[in-house]
């Protein structure tokens, strides 16, 4: 396949598009604009909710309609009117089940990503959760499941949060049974994510590629972490960041510079344009 056939570039945000200060290097913005000008679709593909994406997306200065896959593949929006195109969600029964599971682990907090609200299931918002909500420009709200159900929002995914040691204990005890019913990923030291079964960045990207009539071989994807694995395996042109772990690098076709060296720009200019 010759390199000028890349028609879509799927870009993870944290550890990939964003540097370690959570900013987008200017070179990345320029390269993304060059790719868009060449007719390549730009798709941010991230675990973040919408509130944590829009301020960064606006800095890319893209004029055409683009698409964003959020919540690790649970929701896809088009950016012109922020229309929700496709989504996966957790049912009330599943949410009750996930809450029951957390009851034996007092240090672990269950949080839910709603279409508009970042919920904590319980009476208070722990500092760790408040910190995480702040990273996506939100304020977490503590509510009971009954109150959350009454508000009627689509719940895209759940996250168990704790310091790394208690979360290790929780994951070791519960991952096997949870992964029989849900898609699970330890996306950060303090976050163990629960998505509807089958929902990953790859599932979101597959739906979108089919809608746009783009073959996986014509997609370049860039990522650095465990929640990028399915996406990197799905596409023909997989790029691991220089700061990615060795297992991510070994399954990718290419390895670019780190996120602090504008690795996204280097990859786009080297393998897509």
From TrEMBL:
<dbReference type="InterPro" id="IPR023214">
    <property type="entry name" value="HAD_sf"/>
</dbReference>
<dbReference type="InterPro" id="IPR000150">
    <property type="entry name" value="Cof"/>
</dbReference>
<dbReference type="Pfam" id="PF08282">
    <property type="entry name" value="Hydrolase_3"/>
</dbReference>
<dbReference type="InterPro" id="IPR036412">
    <property type="entry name" value="HAD-like_sf"/>
</dbReference>
<dbReference type="InterPro" id="IPR006379">
    <property type="entry name" value="HAD-SF_hydro_IIB"/>
</dbReference>
<dbReference type="GO" id="GO:0016787">
    <property type="term" value="F:hydrolase activity"/>
</dbReference>
<keyword id="KW-0378">Hydrolase</keyword>
<protein>
    <submittedName>
        <fullName>Cof-type HAD-IIB family hydrolase</fullName>
        <ecNumber>3.1.3.-</ecNumber>
    </submittedName>
</protein>
């Amino acid at each position: 396949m010759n390199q000028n056939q890349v028609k879509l570039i799927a870009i993870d945000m944290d550890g990939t598009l964003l540097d370690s200060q959570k900013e987008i290097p200017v070179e990345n913005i320029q390269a993304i604009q060059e790719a868009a000008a060449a007719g390549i679709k730009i798709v941010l593909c991230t675990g973040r909710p919408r509130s944590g994406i829009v301020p960064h997306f606006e800095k890319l200065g893209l004029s055409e309609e683009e698409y964003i896959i959020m919540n690790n593949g649970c929701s896809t929006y088009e950016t012109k009117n922020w229309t929700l195109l496709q989504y996966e969600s957790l049912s009330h029964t599943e949410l009750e089940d996930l809450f029951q599971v957390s009851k034996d682990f007092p240090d672990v907090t269950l949080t839910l990503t709603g279409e508009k609200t970042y919920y904590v299931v319980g009476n208070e918002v722990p500092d760790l959760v408040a910190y995480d909500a702040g990273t996506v420009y939100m304020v977490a709200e503590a509510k009971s499941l009954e109150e959350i159900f009454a508000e009627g929002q689509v719940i895209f995914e759940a996250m168990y949060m704790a310091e790394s040691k208690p979360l290790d204990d929780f994951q070791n005890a519960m991952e096997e049974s949870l992964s029989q019913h849900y898609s699970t990923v330890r996306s950060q030291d303090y976050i163990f994510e629960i998505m509807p079964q089958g929902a990953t960045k790859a599932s979101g990207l597959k739906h979108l590629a089919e809608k746009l009539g783009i073959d996986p071989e014509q997609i370049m994807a860039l990522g650095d972490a465990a929640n990028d694995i399915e996406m990197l395996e799905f596409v023909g042109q997989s790029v691991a960041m220089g700061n990615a772990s060795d297992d991510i690098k070994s399954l990718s076709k290419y390895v670019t510079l780190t996120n602090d060296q504008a690795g996204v720009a280097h990859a786009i200019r080297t393998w897509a344009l």
